[in-house]
Give the backbone structure.
Amino acid sequence: MEKQKDGISFWKNTKKVDGDTKPHFTGKGFIKGTAVRGSIWITSQDLLQENPKRPRMRLSVMTEADFQEKFQQQHDKGMQEVRNTLADTFQPSQPAPIGTHITADEFDDDIPF
């Protein structure tokens, strides 16, 4: 297998919306043969005017394995929040009365499937 060249290529984050905390640029690459992901946040002009000595940008780099683990944890947390919300929202206050179900014999429609 050919050894990958070290470096990270960055692209503008098209999913970024003003005011959110997503990075301005994201990328993938290799450092010493290890797959990595990188993110760049650009400091706003307002903050630079308040403090001209503030860093112009912030760079974060993590291994692909750490990124996948972090992504999975966030996914699991989000899915648990959805499950909890659905469980709270759709809890029946009381069971349906006996005899209120519909049997297959009671369907009388002409849906062709």
In short: The first strand starts at residue 7 and ends at 12.
